[in-house]
């Protein structure tokens, strides 16, 4: 997703000279080409997240379209009040680009994990929250982020995620994308759990269970209408995210269900409101938190 | 210092570097350069300066050391194991699945880790808090904080610097690992930090400048009495000790392949 993002941004920068990139001393082996091609539209602000966001706001209010790049916790939470006031309250045209969704930085430890970012970013007025799950979504959502004139948060994974969608799939910001048809269960994923969700759906298929897979790549504005229609299918709904179970995709879907006045079986799968003290890889962290393997569900036949 | 004492410290530093190489090789993790620049600093602190007892790691009167540049964790794990905070075998259980020692610091992982960290610019504020608490309770324990040079880009570091001198915290010592490289460029090309000594002085600190790989200089500076907070600017080399890792940005990130591992180990063994 990282490479897809930066290639798309370079393309946008070629077409529009207002596009500007700030790095907070990150991006080794990712941002060099952009720096070479657009030296006047690239700035390393040093390891100083709060200042970087303020500088980005100033550039944006002077007509630039600013992308700010770092690891998720540092570009969202280390500078949270600058994000809230300088970007959101002032409605500045700044896009925060974070890498390392969830426990992507597995063995680095909890300082580098991000399980709170969706919850806090979606609670900020004026903020758009994009959580692409594969390179197709990353490319199209990066392009659409550029059209939005207010702050956007783009939550990326790492590099080398497989394409889940076909090349022709049209991803529309603000609208859920259906990946598979299915009549026994609905699985809604966001961000880097799309790949996992697809794998589970394939496994269920082998067991004769057909699952409707939905990629909720836009968390805000949230596609309320799509969830309402899913409720009407009258089959169980599961949400899957690599984020705290509090405040993320599961919460957003639960809000819609609660207000729909309809009853539907519903389960949230996510990180169980704990920091990881486990040491190990990304997938190992997922295993420890119980989000690596598909849940054992008894289906009434 | 006596030459045989100096030789002993050098040998220990070399042992630490070999541990770090083995850990980074086994785990295929990053940040070896950042660990190599602080080896002599850690060896000096843990053998001659810190009043700590590995058998009683939570002694309330102990000195406390905070590695604010927590990505240099492998060097800290290695010295903690060498002085007896936990078994040396734990060093084989770093970073890989179901192991004990994470890439950054978790104070729930092993004894001797005073604070969980990994985001830069936190350690000095925490150290200031600990120093205030010790002074108020007449606790003789001193606080030592090791910062990286890039970390000093963070505004929070300077907020803590101001408060520490305002409060005249004489039980607080900072060491800056001035290796002149950060994550995406050379430190003074990203943001110029010079004149670094004058800056700290202007903020009211006692300032020392040393070669961060020389034990005599480090010992003198660390032992020098001070009436307010003290900072030691330690000139170091990122990747110190392995020729092809020295002073490169690449070895902030890379992990050695088999050939590089062998060459590095060969160079370190020749120093024994
Ligand atoms: C707040 C924060 N921003 C970014 C990072 C990512 N990061 C890890 S190490 C590093 C910089 C390394 O340079 P320096 O601080 O000089 O330490 P050195 O490796 O040279 O010892 C950065 C930016 C971080 N850990 N914390």
Give a description of the structure:
The complex is a heterodimer of chains A (301) and B (272). Chain A folds into 2 domains: 154 residues, 3-Layer(aba) Sandwich (Rossmann fold); 112 residues, 3-Layer(aba) Sandwich (Rossmann fold), CATH 3.40.50.920. Chain A has 11 helices and 12 strands. A 7-stranded mixed sheet of chain A has the order 2-1-3-4-6-5-10. A 5-stranded mixed sheet of chain A has the order 7-9-8-11-12, with helices on both faces. Chain A is globular and about 60 Å long. The N and C termini of chain A lie far apart (39 Å). Chain B has 272 residues and is an alpha/beta fold. Chain B has one domain: Thiamin diphosphate (ThDP)-binding fold, Pyr/PP domains (Rossmann fold). Chain B is 42% helix and 11% strand. Chain B has 11 helices and 5 strands, in the order αααβααβαβααβαβαα. Chain B is globular, with a radius of gyration of 18 Å. Chain B starts with a helix and ends with a helix. At the A-B interface, α3 of A face loops of B. Thiamine diphosphate sits at the interface of chains B and A.
Summarize the structure.
The complex is a heterodimer of chains A (301) and B (272). Chain A is α/β, with parallel strands linked by helices and 301 residues long. Chain A is built from 11 helices and 12 strands.
Write the layout of secondary structure elements.
The complex is a heterodimer of chains A (301) and B (272).
Chain A: H1 2-15, E1 19-23, H2 32-37, E2 42-44, H3 49-61, E3 65-71, H4 72-77, H5 80-89, E4 94-99, H6 117-122, E5 128-130, H7 135-147, E6 152-155, E7 177-180, E8 185-189, H8 194-206, E9 211-215, E10 218-220, H9 224-231, E11 237-244, H10 249-260, E12 266-271, H11 282-288
Helix pairs in contact in A: 1-7, 3-5, 9-10
Chain B: H1 3-27, H2 32-36, H3 39-49, E1 64-67, H4 73-82, H5 123-136, E2 143-148, H6 155-166, E3 172-178, H7 187-190, H8 196-202, E4 206-211, H9 215-223, E5 230-235, H10 250-253, H11 258-270
Parallel strand pairs in B: 1-2, 2-3, 3-5, 4-5
Helix pairs in contact in B: 1-3, 1-4, 1-11, 3-4, 3-9, 5-6
The complex binds thiamine diphosphate.
């Amino acid at each position: 997703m990282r490479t897809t993002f930066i290639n798309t941004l370079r393309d946008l920068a070629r077409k529009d000279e207002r596009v500007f990139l700030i790095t907070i001393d990150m991006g080794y082996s990712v941002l060099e080409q952009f720096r070479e091609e657009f030296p006047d539209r690239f700035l390393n602000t040093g390891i100083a997240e709060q200042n970087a966001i303020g500088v980005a706001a100033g550039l944006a209010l002077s007509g630039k379209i600013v992308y700010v790049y770092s690891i998720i916790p540092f570009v969202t939470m280390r500078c949270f009040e600058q994000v809230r006031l300088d970007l959101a309250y002032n409605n500045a045209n700044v896009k925060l680009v974070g890498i390392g969704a969830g426990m992507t930085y597995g063995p680095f430890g909890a300082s580098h994990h991000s399980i709170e970012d969706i919850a806090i970013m979606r609670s900020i007025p004026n903020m758009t929250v994009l959580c692409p799950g594969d390179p197709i979504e990353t490319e199209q959502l990066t392009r659409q982020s550029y059209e939005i004139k207010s702050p956007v948060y783009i939550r990326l994974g790492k590099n080398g995620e497989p394409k889940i969608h076909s090349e022709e799939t049209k991803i529309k910001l603000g609208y859920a994308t259906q990946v598979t048809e299915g009549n026994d269960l609905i699985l809604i994923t966001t961000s880097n759990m799309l790949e996992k969700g697809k794998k589970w759906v394939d496994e269920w298929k082998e067991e004769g269970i057909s699952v409707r897979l939905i990629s909720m790549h836009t968390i805000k504005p949230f596609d309320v209408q799509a969830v309402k229609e899913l409720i009407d299918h009258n089959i169980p709904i599961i949400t899957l995210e690599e984020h705290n179970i509090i405040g993320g995709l599961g919460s957003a879907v639960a809000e819609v269900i609660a207000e729909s006045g309809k009853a539907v079986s519903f389960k949230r799968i996510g990180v169980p409101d704990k920091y990881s003290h486990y040491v190990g890889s990304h997938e190992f962290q997922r295993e420890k938190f119980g989000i690596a393997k598909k849940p054992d569900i008894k289906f009434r036949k | 210092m006596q030459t045989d004492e100096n030789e002993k410290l050098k040998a220990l530093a070399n042992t630490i570097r070999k541990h770090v190489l083995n850990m980074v090789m086994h785990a295929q993790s990053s940040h070896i350069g950042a660990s190599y620049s602080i080896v002599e600093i850690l060896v000096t602190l843990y053998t001659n300066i810190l009043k700590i007892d590995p058998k009683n790691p939570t002694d309330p009167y102990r000195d406390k050391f905070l590695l604010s540049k927590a990505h240099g964790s492998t060097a800290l794990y290695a010295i903690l194991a060498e002085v007896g905070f936990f078994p040396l075998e734990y060093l084989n259980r770093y970073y890989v699945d179901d192991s004990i020692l994470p890439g950054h610091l978790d104070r729930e992982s092993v004894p001797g880790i005073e604070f969980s960290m990994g985001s830069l610019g936190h350690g000095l504020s925490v150290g200031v808090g600990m120093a205030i608490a010790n002074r108020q309770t007449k606790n003789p324990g001193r606080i030592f904080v090791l910062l990286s040079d890039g970390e000093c880009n963070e505004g929070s570091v300077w907020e803590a610097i101001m408060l520490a001198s305002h409060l005249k915290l004489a039980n607080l010592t900072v060491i800056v690992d001035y290796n002149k490289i950060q994550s995406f460029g050379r430190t003074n090309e990203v943001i110029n930090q010079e004149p670094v000594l004058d800056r700290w002085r202007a903020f009211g600190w006692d300032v020392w400048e040393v070669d961060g790989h020389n034990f005599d200089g480090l010992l003198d500076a660390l032992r020098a009495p001070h009436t307010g907070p003290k900072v030691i600017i330690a000139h170091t080399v990122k990747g110190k000790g392995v020729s092809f890792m020295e002073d490169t940005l690449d070895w902030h990130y890379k992990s050695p392949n088999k050939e590089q591992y062998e060459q590095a180990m060969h160079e370190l063994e020749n120093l024994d």
